[in-house]
Amino acid sequence: DTYKGWLFKWTNYLKGYQRRWFVLSNGLLSYYRTQAEMAHTCRGTINLSTAHIDTEDSCNIVLSNGGRTYHLKANSEVERQRWVTALELAKAKAIRMRNNQSDDSGDEEPASQSDKSELHGPLKTLSSKLEDLSTCNELIAKHGAALQRSLSELENLRLPADSGEKIKAVNERATLFRITSNAMINACRDFLDLAESHSRKWQRLLQHEREQRIRLEETIEQLAKQHNSLERACRGAPGLASGTASISSTAKAGSVQSAKGEASDEDEETEYFDAMEDAPAFITVTADPKHHRRSGSNLSGASEGHPEDWNLEDSVFESSNQSSYNESTGKDLLPRKRRRSRIPDKPNYSLNLWSIMKNCIGKELSKIPMPVNFNEPLSMLQRLTEDLEYHELLDKAVKCESSTEQMCFVAAFSVSSYSTTVHRTAKPFNPLLGETYELDRLEELGFRSLCEQVSHHPPAAAHHVYSRRGWTLWQDITISSKFRGKYLSIMPLGAIHLEFHSSGNHYVWRKVTSTVHNIIVGKLWIDQSGEIEIVNHKSKDKCQLKFTPYSYFSRDVPRKVTGVVSDADGKAHYVMSGTWDEKMECSKIIHSSHGSTSTEGKQKTVYQTLSPKVLWRKYPLPENAENMYFFSELALTLNEPEERVAPTDSRLRPDQRLMESGRWDEANVEKQRLEEKQRAVRRRREAEAVEALEEGEDYEGYIPLWFERKVDAVTGELICVYKGGYWEAKEKQDWSVCPDIF
Questions:
Q1: Where in the numbering of this chain does the PH domain appear (predicted)?
Q2: Residue 215 CB: number of other CB atoms within 10 A?
Q3: Distance (Å, rounded) from C-alpha 488 to C-alpha 200?
Q4: Which of 193, 197, 422, 601 has the highest count of CB atoms within 10 angstroms of its CB?
Q5: What is the domain partition of the chain in residue ranges?
Q6: Do β-strands 68-73 and 44-47 pair in parallel, antiparallel, or remain unpaired?
Q7: In 101-112, which ranges are continuous DSSP H helix?
C-alpha cells in the first residue's frame, strides 16, 4: 500500500536531475526535497488513477497526468523496475477504488431501455478488444523472452560455423515478435478508434442527463418554497390540532433519517426516535418512572436500567425542569478578573465577494489572498481555543463514575464547540508559521491552553489543554477547504484526544464538515453536517452522533443532532438529542424490545427511556453582538491584550489588531506586509534545503517550538504533541527561542 524511496527528478535545464524523496500511498505519488519535509511541505502530487506510466530507457520513468509530467530516474534498472511495478499496482488499485466509489454528484444512469442498449453494445465490443490486447500482451512477453535467449546464445558463439544457424533463428523469432507487435498495435488502433467514435454520443447523453437534472432541481426548489409558504400559512390558521407527536431520528450506527409526524393517541410528553439508515430501526418512548417502578419486574430486554439511578440527588445529571445549566453551574465559575465585554463596532464597508471568489473556484481557501473585509478579528488559533467555552462539561464528566454516563458529557462537549458558528460567517485570520496563542485560566477556571501553527501549507495547528480539575485535551488539526461556487466546504482533518486523569478514560473523535452557503447570492448561512464517532479506547464505549444537514423537505428542527451511547457489547444506554446551536439532552434507556417492522422492511427496536435531562445549553450572546461579529462572551476576551505573553502570540499580530480597531485599510496593508515577510522566510528556508542537499546533508525544515511530532499510539497517525517548556519560559520571561514573525 505504501512505497518510499529516493529518485532523481528532472527540474530544469540549469539544474538537471535533482534527488527527491518520493512517497507512493493511496494511489498518489508525492515528492519532497527531504524526508523531514513529509511532516509539513509536499512539493507535488500526481494522481495515478488517471496517469500514464512510461519507461524511456533502463533507468528512466515518465509519469504524465493531464498537463503535469514527471521525468524520473532511478539508480539502477532493478530499482526502476521495482518502482514501475509499485506504480502499476497502485494505479490499478486506485482505478478499482474510483470505480467502486459512489458518485457524489448523484449522476443517474440513462433512463430509457434504448439508451442502456446503446451503451451496452459498445461496451461489449470494447471489452472484446481489451481481451485481444491482453492476449497480444502475453504473446509479446513469451516471444520477447525467446528472443532474449537467442540473443544471449548469439553473444556466446565462438565458432563461425554455428553463426549462420543461430543468426537465422534470431531472425525468425524477431520476425515473429514483429508480427505479434503489429497485431497488438492494430488492436490498440481499433480500440482507440472505437472509443473515439462513441465518445461524442456519450457526451451528448451525459449533457442531456445533466440538463434534465438541473431542470428537475429548479422545479423541486420551487415546489419546496411553495410547500414552506403553505405550511406557514397553515400554522397560522386557527383551530388546528396541536397534539401531534414529535418524531425525530437517532440511530446506533450514526445515520439518521427524518420522518414525518402524524397525529397520535400517545401522551404529549412522549417522544419517538425513528429509524437509522445503517442499523435496525428503533423507536424511543419516554416512560413514567413511577409506572416503571411498579412494573419493572415484568420488563425484560436487551437493555435495562434503574430509574432510581436517574433521580438520585447527587447524580451528575441535572433535570431539565430545574434551573438551566448556565444558571446552575455558571455562578461558581465566574472569572475573578474583570475582562472586556465589548469591542469596537464592525465598520460598514461594502465589498463584492463574488468579484474576488469567481477566479478561485476549486482552490484551497488558505491559498486565496483575501482582504480583511471578509475576516473577523480573531485567528484560527483563537477560534480553536474557543472550543473550550463550555469546558464545565468536562469538569462535570470528571465526577461521573460510569463511563457511559461520562460519554454523554463528552458528546455534549463535542457538539457545543459548534454553537458559536451559527452566525459567524466571517473567515478567521490564517496564522503565520510559528504563531502561538495561549489562554491561561488556571487560577480562574482551572485550565490553561496553548496553540501553535506548526505548518503553513497545508495549514496545521497543534493544541494542548491541561486542567487541574482532572482532564487533558490535545489535537492536531489541519483545515482543508474548497470553494465550490455556490458554497464553501471546510473540512477539519485530524483527531481530538481527551483523557481523564483519575479513570484513564481516553476519548477520541473527529470534527464534522462545515458548509457556508449562498456565496454568490443571498444571505450567508452556515450548516454542519456529517457524523461524529466518539470512542473510549479504554472501555470501548462508543457514541454515534449525526448532524442532520438542512433540507427543504424536513419537518425536523434545523441544526438537529441525534445519537446513541452504547457500551463495548453494543448495548445502548443513552439517547442523545438536541441541536448544535442551542442545547443537548440525554435520555436514559430502561428497557428495549423488538417492535413492528418498518416500511423499509427493517424490524424496529423500541427503547423505553426516562425523561430527558439537559446536559448543555448555549449561553446567550452579549448585547449588540450583531455589530461585534456575533462574538460570544469568551470570544470578546480572546484578543484582549495581556502582558507576559510570547512575542509570537496572536494578540500581538498588528493587522488583526488594526482590524479590530476598525482601521481596515491599514490592516490590509499590514496583512500584505506580513504575508510577504512569511514568503521571504519560506524562500530562504527552501534555499537552505537546496544547499544542504548539494552538500549531501538532510534538511529538517521547520521545527515547531513547543510541540514535537510523534506517532500517536491510538490512531497511528503522525501528530504534534506538547513537549513542554512554554509555561516555564513564560514564568522566566525567556522568549529567546521565539522567531520574529510580526
A1: 1-92
A2: 10
A3: 33
A4: 422
A5: 2-98, 344-536+630-688
A6: unpaired
A7: none
SS3 720: strand
Q: Give the SS3 label for residue 498.
A: strand
Rounded CA separation 252/575 (Å): 9
Q: Is 603 helix (H, G, I), strand (E, B) or coil?
A: strand
Checking phi first, is residue 221 left (phi over 0); if not, alpha (psi -120 to 50) or beta? alpha
Per-residue model confidence as pLDDT tens digits over 480-533: 887 776 788 888 999 999 999 999 999 999 999 999 888 777 788 899 999 999
The CA-based dihedral angle spanning residues 633, 636, 641, 646, taken in that order and rounded to the nearest 10 degrees? 90
| Closest listed residue to residue 435, CA positions, set 465, 470, 459, 458 | 459
Which phi and psi (to 5°) does residue 527 adopt?
-130, 150
Element containing residue 229 per DSSP (H, E): helix 160-236
Collapsed DSSP state (helix, strand, coil) of residue 718: strand
pLDDT in tens, 648-694: 999 999 999 999 999 988 998 999 899 889 888 888 888 888 888 88
| 3 state SS of 716 | coil
Q: Is 86 helix (H, G, I), strand (E, B) or coil?
A: helix
Query: CB-side exposure of 558: number of CA atoms within 13 Å?
Result: 9
Rounded to whole angstroms, the Cα distance separating 34 from 24 reads 15
Q: Does 2.30.29.30 match the CATH number of domain 2-98? A: yes
Tell me if 132 sits within 8 A of 139, measured CB to CB.
Answer: no
Q: Which of 40-44, 78-82, 405-409 has the lowest mean pLDDT?
A: 40-44
Measured CA to CA, the distance from residue 246 to residue 266 in angstroms comes to 11
Task: Please state, in angstroms and rounded to a whole number, the distance separating the CA atoms of residues 231 and 208.
Answer: 34
Q: Considering only CA atoms, which of 482, 240, 199 is closest in space to residue 368?
A: 482
Task: Tell me the H-state helices in 67-112.
Answer: 77-100
Length of the chain in terms of residues written: 742
**Which residues, in sequence order, are CB contacts of 343 under 8 Å at separation 6+?**
377, 628, 631, 636, 639, 660
Q: How far apart are CA 291 and CA 275, in angstroms?
A: 26
pLDDT of residue 403: 93
CA distance 742 to 435: 9
User: What is the number of alpha carbons within 13 Å of residue 18 lying toward its C-beta?
Assistant: 19
As a dihedral over the C-alpha atoms of residue 130, residue 132, residue 134, residue 139, rounded to 10 degrees, the angle is: -160
The rounded distance, in Å, linking the Cα atoms of 180 and 141 is 10
3-class DSSP string for 406-447? HHHHHHHHHHHCCHHHCCCCCEEECCCCCCEEEEEECCCCCE
State pLDDT tens for residues 719-735. 999 999 999 999 999 99
Angle of helix 113-155 relative to helix 160-236, nearest 10 degrees, comes to: 150
Question: Mean pLDDT: which of 181-185, 205-209, 266-270, 337-341 is highest?
Answer: 337-341
Quote the CA–CA distance of 62 and 53 in Å, as a whole number.
6
CB of 693 closer than 8 Å to CB of 34 = yes
Measured between alpha carbons, how far is 3 from 379 in angstroms, rounded to an integer? Answer: 37
Residue 46 CA to chain centroid, in angstroms?
21
For 323-338, letters b (16+ CB in 10 Å) and e give eebeeebeeeeeeeee
Q: What is the dihedral of CA 324, 326, 327, 332, to 10 degrees?
A: 140
